[in-house]
Amino acid sequence: MDRFDIAPVSLDTPLALPPATADPARAGFPLIASLAPVVGALALWAITGSPFALVFAVLGPIVAIGSMLDARRSARRLRRRASAERRRLLDELVAEIGRRHDLERAAAWQRSPSSRRLLDRPEHPAWREAAPPTLVLGRGAAASALRVDGAPVDAGDREVLLAAARLDDAPMSVDAGAGVGFVGELHLARAAARASVVQFAHQAHPQRFAIEVAEGTEGAHWEWLHALPHRGGRTRAGLVVVEPTDGRHRPLEPTTLAPQGERRPAMVVAVARTASQLPPGLGTIVTMRAPDAAVVRRHQGTAEMQLAPSLLGIAEAAGWAHSLAAVAERAGLGDRSNELPRRLELGELQGRPDAVHDRSSLAVTVGQVAGGALELDLARRGPHALVAGTTGSGKSEFLLAWIVALSAAHPPARVSFLLVDFKGGAAFEPVRGLPHVTGIVTDLDDSEAERAVLSLRAELTHRETVLARAGARDIAGLDDGVDLARLVIVVDEFQAMIERFPDLGAVIGDIAARGRSLGVHLVLASQRPNGVVREQVTANCPIRVSLRVLQRSDSEAVVGTASASEIPSDLPGRGVVDPGDGCPVLFHSAIATPAAIAEVGERAAGFPRARRTWLDPLPGRIAPDAVHGLLGAPRPAAAPGHRMIEQEADGAGIGFGVVDEPERQRRSLARWAPRRDGGLLVLGMPGSGRSTALAAIERASIERAAIGSGGAARVVAEPRQAGDSASGALGLAGPSSAVWDRLVAAQAAVRGGAAPPALVVLDDLDTRFRAWPEEYRHAAFAMVESLVREGRGRGVAVVASAADLHALGGGLREAFGARLLLRHATRSDLVQSGGRGELWRAVDGAGTGQWHGRRVQVIEATPVAEPAAPAVPPLRLRPELPYAVVAAAPRAAAAVITEVGRTAILLVAGGESAVRAAVAAHPLDASPPVIVGDSEAWAASWSLTAALREEAGLIVHGGAGEYRALVRSRELPPLLDDGAGQCWLLEPGRGVRRAIWPNQRNH
């Protein structure tokens, strides 16, 4: 079908005719089956001699004939079923062909819209620099791209194949360059020609192609062509409309479309009553027979084609031409586009001499369009704007000029700026000093950028509160006395910010949705906003600006036209803008020179700076007397030289640091409430400030204890002196023996009736018991876990620190309900400890960490002096009391006993009788002897051991093994300090206690 064929579309899986129904094989006569009973019956008769046996011979043929008839009946049934199934498949195939034809037809009309459809959408021309390939003349039958496999069986199959190969009601197009002639009744021929010209104007770029009327053409019917933007003078090829007034054709004369010596125009559209009146050489001739019927004949002699032509009236074409001209003018393709300057300074524009205080408008002049100045108003035409532009297009200069223009027109009390630059931070440096600028966020500091944007949520809440208190629906309805400025958030390289912080997209979307009434406006700039900015945001960005972009699709996505992709690279500042009315126009941006910026700064010097939308990061060190300033609260009066942290005895918790809450635009006191949170575990690598955190918590506990004991509502806490227990704090530091004793006493108090300590502090929990004997180490961890779990109900708060979380048992780890996470070596270590990986910083100093998922800085504090451990007394033997000594080195121990003036009897394995004899021979007036042996000797002398255990003093100079050999108790004795020369002493009526072994004390 030559040029009437349409391009193929994607058509799912291939189609095929259902296979032909195969006839089942004809059933033959079962000769052997019929003869077998006959032979059997004859044999039976020959054997038995009974004539009744011959009856069976008749059954064979009867059964064979019945089987043959039944097989033929089954074959007919199968044939009918197969035919019905094929008809069903054929009906489904016909339905599928129709469905795919509908899709193919819709795709064809989408690619090649009719002239009638083009009239409904003049604002979306498909201009291209290449010559228009085809023109749609109307609708008719075209060759379909659909193919159906399989061989036809009958006439019905052949009809299905013919129907599949033909696409009815399809666009019928012809080659645009070969020329088209329309003949017949002139009113019909002109209407069809007008439709073809509209097709050409829809596709041909006005700067590359022109449309003119040939000399001698009837002009009254073609005056509407002068409204099109396709005018001559700048182009070499185009379209010429020919309609001889005298009914005779004449050779085409050179025009501005084809100067002397150059080839003829690219396309001719001619109108005549008969074909003989048309210019020669036309590729296609359309003969109009009726308004809905025409015949198309090609010059090559192909078969004639029938179609329903596209027809347009003069009024319709003229209205469309004027709309298309307006589109071209807005895109800078009209005659007035040459009025734009190549460079424009902001001072050359007519600005506003004095700052205005109107909250309802942010109108400023930022550039020039053809015929006047370009004014943008975020308040009335916004609330938000989208800006596109590739590198070198002048995008940053445009943003800077807009900021300066707004600063010149409005005081800081009416408009303020938060500037975000994610391409180094230099773009907005010239305006940093303006009082309107609350801050500049760059990609050089990730944490600062994230904090600033997260603070915007709190800014929205703050504005909602102000509006609610004032009883206003939006910011424009506030009284002049209410302090609330419009906030313009300008983001340069929005795509880079979202790639760095994907979660911030939700924050920007929230601002886009609620910003209008709250007075928060977004100006989002990116090299390619298409696909980067969410639809939720773009739907609220009626102001669209596109400076030069590289891709046609980027320009169309921003301003609805491809004109921004055609801007020359040597015109920075030139772009297309939709000021919010849906009509994009070409403009040239102004430049804010240093002089203009300095002038604005001088005029605004007397205004107070705009309210900042976010707080500075927490300092690396916080002294106790600086807490109130960081929290934004007045510092209470205090005695000179005193340091204080504000605490309250209301159960709110122990304050130990300052928490950064950027999403709430505030800082708060980090409080640990033991009854609510449970035990506190401070985790961090060496040097992260764990000991400082424990000291801060202990000193805060002292303040709370002072308040609870009847002090003022806010008190000043002096450093605790050694031995002072007013705070009720129990520090588990010092010698191992002292730590053990305090643990045992605390556990006994929790489980008994004594008053337990209010706070138990244990530094380096993961390594504190590492050097202890295994039994004591396990017992110590068990007591700590008991204090954490059981002490909570008795008002005991337990805080401990550790560097290695995994060094603690699972039960102990789970016992602590709260964690203060200081600096960790790696991000993964922090996450495994339960922290937020995004808050990890390798450069964090001591005391910096996380508390309940937020950044915290611990308040500096010096460790509280612990009371000195009680001195261990020397070993003193009562003269009237016999003693039994178990020692790892019994001979040396016996020598020491002798040195202190007591008689020592050495016990060896199997020597119990000798010892008894020596004891019996000992003078009665002398002090009882001291029996010394090792654990094996005492274990072998079990009767002697049992006797002495009741009436003698027991001394253990060794380890737990020696202790159990003599004392025979499962309870652990008090822990001995390693290397301190201590021993255990048990005397009748007294519990086990420590003592200094004599020879060690003498040294």
UniProtKB/TrEMBL annotation:
The chain crosses the membrane at residues 27-47, 53-71. CDD domains: TrwB_TraG_TraD_VirD4. Coiled coil: none annotated. One of its GO terms (molecular function) is DNA binding. It holds the Pfam family FtsK_SpoIIIE. PROSITE patterns: FTSK. Residues 371-556 form the FtsK domain. ATP binds at residues 389-396. Signal peptide: none annotated. InterPro entries: AAA+_ATPase (IPR003593), FtsK/SpoIIIE/SftA (IPR050206), FtsK_dom (IPR002543), P-loop_NTPase (IPR027417). Keywords: ATP-binding, Membrane, Nucleotide-binding, Transmembrane, Transmembrane helix. This is S-DNA-T family DNA segregation ATPase FtsK/SpoIIIE. It comes from Agromyces hippuratus.
